[in-house]
UniProtKB/TrEMBL annotation, chain A:
Protein name from the UniProt record: BMP family protein
SUPFAM superfamilies the record matches: Periplasmic binding protein-like I
Cell compartments where the protein resides: Cell membrane
Membrane topology: Lipid-anchor
Ranges of residues in domain ABC transporter substrate-binding protein PnrA-like: 41-336
TrEMBL record, chain B:
Record key words, sorted: ATP-binding, Nucleotide-binding, Repeat, Transport
Cross-referenced InterPro entries: AAA+_ATPase (IPR003593), ABC_carbohydrate_import_ATPase (IPR050107), ABC_transporter-like_ATP-bd (IPR003439), ABC_transporter-like_CS (IPR017871), P-loop_NTPase (IPR027417)
This protein's name: ABC transporter ATP-binding protein
Gene3D superfamilies linked: P-loop containing nucleotide triphosphate hydrolases
A GO molecular-function descriptor: ATP binding
The keyword Nucleotidyltransferase is assigned to this record: no
Domain ABC transporter stretches: 40-272, 289-537
The keyword Repressor is annotated on this UniProt entry: no
Pfam families, per the entry: ABC_tran (PF00005)
Ranges for region Disordered: 535-556
TrEMBL record, chain C:
Protein name per its UniProtKB record: ABC transporter permease
PANTHER family: ABC TRANSPORTER, PERMEASE PROTEIN, GUANOSINE ABC TRANSPORTER PERMEASE PROTEIN NUPP
Transmembrane regions listed in the UniProt entry: 12-35, 55-76, 88-105, 111-132, 141-159, 193-211, 246-267, 319-338
UniProt KW keywords: Cell membrane, Membrane, Transmembrane, Transmembrane helix
Organism the protein comes from: Streptomyces ochraceiscleroticus
UniProt key word Transmembrane: yes
Lineage: Bacteria, Bacillati, Actinomycetota, Actinomycetes, Kitasatosporales
CDD domains, per database record: TM_PBP1_transp_TpRbsC_like
Length: 344, 556, 368
């Protein structure tokens, strides 16, 4: 009797397999629609991460408002694989969205791969390079913006100890770390920078505010009074923790976090934010498609091009304007070269 | 049958709900009851479990102020009946009358309120509390937990001569003392009728006598005792009335004076009672198992290492049954585990058929011909959730017919399981059912069949007939006797002294990890053995002779 | 006997059916609570999931899930809770990628070499927990969780430029495997099936055979059912603990291989994580049965495939996660309910037959 079940199950399994081997049934890619507007695929955290994804969403919102396009926003889950990302992008492209934008370096490979299957669609990817004709790769000089944050931190700290919290220890976040450390060191060599990461190699680091909170608490207890967090949505946890301590400053990332309604409670402690103008870049891509002259290739948006900048909302760094402008000038003029990798 | 139900029996202690009712109604009805009304009267009780009738048209009348014994084989339906009387189960048909008044119990609390108390076979006491605390626990509403409660406990204890010491921790008490605490617990809650479920199963003969004295005391005070047992000698010595249950129904009510154990047994099983007697000797002088200077230490929960086996030495020859008597917990289990290789001794040697196996792995010992009928068959002898044929493989996976090389031979194993089921009369609808669904006796027959199928040189049988009905018991005894005739050496450990004396060629008594006495089963009496077991008779060799000299025809 | 077997079959089918019906009901209620139409959601899922490219996607996705479930199930079968499959496959894939990236051998040598390295590393990592359990009595639950973190830290340390990784844009990854080490694919339309499907099937059959047909497997299951009975039966429980942890770890080592040899060709910061935990859910779902787990892995793939489509249809993204959780919960409960019911039926049957036998002998006695 048990054998019968086994045989039956094996039969069903092999029938199913045979079915897909011979590709019976329609392929989902055959059913493509017409232009539906912008398809935006977020990294983990989603549009309301008060940070990186939200910056991209802002650019899209602007396009929706000014150019009258429609949009579709989708979000990655923790622990995704390449196949999940490819599917998300494919779904957007075949549904007729144009451009399709992957937000975050995780989409680097999948955007370039999927783009080859949809040559008529424009793709864009933030924080990664383009290797396909119809892909626009948008990169930022996070290290340069972070350098300025380092300058501000070195000038503001009273304890002469500052901290950096990265979400995930990967090449991208290391750029933030490298710039920040260099900025602090160039400004005041006596200030000690401690850099720590939430996760060694798990993207959950961008989606785990509790972990950032714990990390920030450790740093605060150790007397660090300026903490720069580059960890997407996790950053909110760190900011919340810093705000609970008098005299401590948080430095935000990607968006102007002082101006984020979700973080309004803590804004008195947000010294500044290293803004990546993702919104501008995303808007530009959408506009280029609407104008019929889609952008492609890889672009590096540096401090010089205002691709990155230091937010001044709140006015807490107004007193440092002189030093910051001077530092910016040195970088723009090429007198200071900001490293991409942290000093070992 | 009812055994299936027993597996799932919830450990019901008298619940709080019941206690409040007791104060109101426990004692008075007894006093007010008309003298003629029986304490308990069951009429036409029938209880069906899905597909099985556990009790059928049972009628029992228990006179007030008597000890009434309920005898029957395991699975005859005694437990179900007592559960009905104690409110744990509702009968499908029939009536219960207490002191002439018809009642219906929805829960044990109702039964307690009516003055019925139950002492379970497995005690329900908290080890880390004192006797007083255990008695009061759950009955705080009666007399509180302070001086009043203490006074009440001592009063009850004195009245029935229970000699309970209220401030001793239960963990420091022996089995007999714990039983008295259980009885006192029930009396404290106002019970006028006590149900004792197999109370003598855990006691040595001297303790049994003490218990019976207590029961007589209770009887003298006007209380009623319902006494469940299958030990006929005991029943005859203490009971005023005896009701016999067979296959779920009452087959006879007898008076001890008018019956013999043999007649009772025949009523119980419906045929003649088997006897464990083996008199013709098959002992050879070829040693099969030699244990010499065996020593084993164990660390108890407090971290203190102590010797659980010390200086153990004996030899079992081919065709010999060596019986070890002793109160449980004196090292018998450890001795068996050391011989089986489940514990590594830290001194001494074990030699099987000339080969030193002191530190050999268990599997090697089994392959070399040790058969094992474990004391706790659920823990050590069976895979309860596995089908019978997998249980047939258990312990012998490396041997034929279960495997060929490194692969299992499922076909042969299944076929051989069928053979065991037939030859050893395992009552089962098939070999695909789980071991858990068999009754205890049939589980044991399967184990014995399995072990005997590999023609062991040495059989370790620990309590081989515990919890086994009379029919299965006789079969198991027959198996052991037959194998012994064929040259098997048997190490028999049992709490049933009749079984030990009846089956063994040589007897040893184990006390606190040492073999303290030996005896000749042909002359020794259970009473003599019992005193050696408690350490009272620090007997040396031939203690039996003393008995023979002083007691004369004790062994006759 | 036939009768009992029929009951067994009915019960065997009843459990999953019960679970799926319950899961559908609960999920429907949840979808309704979000103000959406559950029936439309199921229609979308069935429709999208049955597309040919979806089938390929689902099967490819299910392969590592299945391997992961097998690795977990080896432990489960002997009552070991190997939570560390996640760390085991990641560290195994990492070092396999390092070895593979450093060598350029012909494929028939290099692919087996990479797989063996992965299995060895996985074994060692799991074996640590086994050794700690047998020598120190530390629960494998604790050690394997810790080892997950340690694995992540070890990988994090080595996965840096100048250590064992190269930098590629914003990613670090181990050097790419040579083209000779790319695993074969089974050509189907529109996308190819991952050749590792064959390996997964072979491992599944091996799992079934070793556990069900060998002495070793019997010993392992015995320990799982009753440690005390196994010990009394001559099984060395300690050795079985270590052996099964090693086997579980070796199976875990395979989990990363479809990705490494068929998709990414390197171990980078974007290497998938969490498959080891998914494996626990699938092993529960499939009741440790090789075919059950295959069905579970495919179901998981189906849910993930169609979940994205649901998001497209304006359902909440989390619906699929809720469904997965509800299904596992329902399955576990349903199997327990059915198991108890089955046991009761069986005991009743045994009781009935014995009663019948007894009646027969009674009659015989009467007539005699």
């Amino acid at each position: 009797m048990r054998r019968v079940t086994k045989i039956a199950a094996a039969g069903i399994a092999s029938a199913a397999l045979a079915c897909s081997l011979t590709a019976c049934g329609e392929s989902s890619t055959e059913a493509a629609g017409k232009d539906k507007g912008v398809g935006l695929a977020f990294d983990v955290g989603g549009r309301d991460d008060h940070s990186f994804n939200e910056a991209a969403a802002r650019g899209t919102d602007k396009a929706v408002k000014e150019l009258g396009v429609k949009s579709k926003l989708m979000t990655a889950k923790n622990g995704e694989t390449e196949a999940d990302r490819e599917q998300r992008l494919t779904s957007l492209a075949e549904a007729g969205f144009n451009p399709v934008i992957g937000v975050g370096f995780n989409y680097g490979n999948s955007v370039n791969k999927v783009a080859k299957k949809f040559p008529k669609t424009t793709f864009a990817v933030v924080d990664s390079a383009s290797t396909a004709k119809n892909v626009y790769g948008i990169n930022f000089s996070e290290n340069e913006g972070s350098y300025l944050a380092g300058v501000a931190a070195a000038l503001k700290t009273k304890t002469k100890k500052v901290g950096f919290i990265g979400g995930v220890n990967n090449a991208l976040i290391q750029k933030f770390q490298a710039g920040f450390e260099q900025g602090v060191k160039d400004t005041d060599p006596k200030v000690k920078v401690t850099s720590q990461y939430l996760y060694a190699n798990d993207d959950k680091g961008f989606n785990d505010p509790a972990a950032a909170k714990g990390k920030a608490k450790g740093m605060l207890d150790d007397g660090k009074d300026v903490i720069y967090t580059a960890a997407g949505q996790s950053g909110a946890g760190s900011i919340e923790m810093v705000a609970a301590k008098k005299g401590a400053w948080a430095i935000g990332v990607d968006s102007d976090q002082y101006a984020q309604p979700g973080l309004a409670k803590y804004k008195d402690h947000i010294l500044t934010s290293v803004v990546k103008n993702v919104d501008v870049a995303v808007y530009d891509v959408i506009k280029s498609v609407e104008d019929g002259k889609p952008l492609h290739g890889t672009v590096h948006l540096t401090l010089k091009q205002d691709g990155v900048s230091l937010a001044t909302s709140g006015g807490y760094i107004d007193d440092l304007k002189g030093e910051l402008d001077a530092a910016k000038k040195r970088i723009v003029d090429g007198k200071v070269k900001v490293a991409e990798n942290p000093a070992k | 049958m009812s055994e299936g139900g027993a597996l799932h029996r919830p450990a019901l202690a008298p619940s709080l709900r019941g206690e409040c009712a007791i104060t109101a109604s426990s004692s008075p009805p007894a006093e007010r009851a008309p003298a003629a009304a029986p304490a308990v009267e069951l009429r036409g009780i029938t209880k069906r479990f899905p597909g099985v009738v556990a009790n059928h048209d049972i009628g029992i009348t228990v006179r007030r102020g008597t000890v009434h014994a309920l005898v029957g084989e395991n699975g005859a339906g005694k437990s179900t009946l007592m559960k009905i009387l104690y409110g744990m189960q509702k009968p499908d048909e029939g009536t219960i009358a207490i002191d002439g008044e018809q009642v219906s119990f929805a829960s044990p609390a109702d039964a307690i309120a009516r003055g019925i108390g139950m002492v379970h076979q497995h005690f329900m006491l908290a080890d880390n509390l004192t006797v007083l605390e255990n008695i009061v626990l759950g009955a705080e509403k009666l007399h509180g937990i302070g001086a009043a409660a203490r006074k009440a406990v001592l009063e009850v204890s004195d009245r029935y001569g229970l000699n309970v010491r209220p401030d001793v921790l239960v963990e420091d008490l022996g089995v007999a003392d714990r039983q008295r605490v259980e009885i006192l617990k029930v009396l404290y809650r106002g019970a006028r009728t006590l149900i004792l479920d197999e109370p003598t199963a855990v006691l040595v003969p001297q303790e049994v006598d003490a218990l019976f004295d207590n029961l007589r005391e209770l009887k003298a005070e006007g209380l009623t005792v319902l006494f469940i047992s299958h030990k006929l000698g005991e029943v005859l010595s203490v009971a005023d009335d005896i009701t016999v249950i067979r296959r779920g129904t009452t087959v006879a009510s007898v008076v001890p004076g008018e019956t013999t154990p043999k007649q009772l047994a025949e009523l119980m099983v419906g045929s003649e009672l088997p006897s464990p007697e083996t008199r013709e000797s098959t002992v050879t002088d070829t040693p099969m198992l030699t244990v010499d200077g065996l020593h084993l230490s164990a660390t108890d929960p407090d971290g203190v290492a102590r010797a659980v086996l010390d200086g153990i030495g004996f030899t079992i020859h081919k065709g010999e049954v060596l019986g070890i008597a002793g109160v449980e917990g004196n090292g018998q289990a450890e001795l068996v585990e050391a011989i089986m290789g489940m514990r590594d001794p830290d001194g001494g040697t074990i030699t099987l058929d000339g080969a030193d196996i002191s530190h050999a792995p268990t599997r090697k010992r089994r392959e070399d011909g040790i058969g094992y009928v474990p004391e706790d068959r659920h823990r050590h002898g069976l895979l309860l959730e596995a089908p019978l044929w997998e249980n047939r493989i258990l312990g012998h996976v490396t041997e034929k017919p279960n495997s060929r090389g490194r692969l299992l031979d499922l076909k042969a194993a299944r076929a051989d399981t069928e053979r065991i089921v037939t030859e050893y009369d395992v009552r089962t609808p098939g070999i695909e059912v789980t071991a858990a669904s068999l009754s205890g006796g049939n589980q044991q027959k399967l184990i014995v069949g399995r072990e005997m199928s590999h023609h062991p040189k040495l059989l370790i049988a620990a309590h081989p007939t515990r919890g086994v009905d009379v029919g299965a018991q006789a079969q198991i005894w027959d198996q052991i006797r037959e194998a012994r005739r064929e040259g098997l050496a048997v190490l028999l450990i049992s709490a049933d002294l009749d079984e030990l004396i009846g089956l063994s060629d040589t007897l040893r008594v184990m006390f606190r990890g040492r073999l303290v006495a030996d005896a000749d089963p042909a002359t020794i009496t259970p009473e003599e053995l019992g005193s050696a077991m408690t350490g009272a008779a620090s007997g040396h060799l031939e203690h039996a002779e003393d008995g023979a000299e002083t007691g004369g025809g004790a062994a006759e | 006997m036939k009768k009992i077997d029929r009951t067994k079959l009915t019960l065997g089918i009843a459990a999953p059916v019960l679970a799926i019906v319950a899961a559908l009901l609960i999920t429907s209620v949840i979808i309704l609570a979000t103000g959406k139409d559950p029936l439309h959601a199921y229609a979308v899922m069935v429709d999208f999931g049955s597309k040919s490219d979806s089938q390929v996607w689902i099967i490819n996705k299910a392969v590592p899930y299945y391997l992961s479930a097998l690795a977990v199930a080896i432990g489960f079968r002997m009552n070991l809770f190997n939570i560390g499959v996640d760390g085991q496959y990641r560290i195994a894939a990492f070092f396999a990628a390092v070895v593979g990236g450093a060598l350029t051998l012909p494929g028939f040598l290099q692919i087996p070499l990479i797989i063996i390295v992965a299995m060895l590393v996985g074994s060692v990592w799991a074996g640590i927990a086994g050794v700690l359990k047998t020598t120190r009595g530390v629960s494998e639950v604790i050690t394997t969780i810790m080892l997950n973190s340690i694995a992540a830290a070890v990988i994090g340390y080595f996965l840096q430029e100048g250590r064992l990784a190269v930098k590629d844009g914003n990613l670090f990854h181990t050097p790419d495997l040579p083209a000779s080490s790319h695993f074969f694919t089974i050509p189907t339309q529109p996308d190819p099936l991952d050749g590792f499907l064959v390996v997964a099937a072979v491992v599944g059959v091996a799992y079934w055979f070793v556990l069900g047909r060998t002495r070793f497997g019997f010993d392992l299951r015995t320990v799982g059912r009753s440690e005390s009975a196994a010990q009394a039966g001559g099984v060395s429980v300690k050795r079985m603990v270590i052996t099964s942890m090693l086997l579980s770890g070796a199976a875990a080592g395979l989990i990363g291989m479809p990705t490494l040899l068929g998709v990414s060709y390197n171990y980078g910061t974007d290497f998938p994580v969490g498959i080891g935990f998914t494996g626990i859910a699938i092993a529960l779902l499939g009741r440790n049965h090789p075919l059950g787990m295959a069905a579970g892995a495919l179901l998981w793939g189906f849910l993930e495939r169609t979940g994205t489509q649901l998001e497209f249809e304006d359902y909440e993204q989390e619906i699929v996660g809720v469904m997965q959780g509800v299904i596992v919960l329902c399955v576990v409960i349903a199997y327990e309910v059915v198991r108890r019911y089955g046991l009761r039926i069986q005991q009743r049957k045994v009781g009935e037959e014995l009663a019948a036998q007894a009646r027969k002998t009674d009659k015989a006695e009467v007539s005699a």
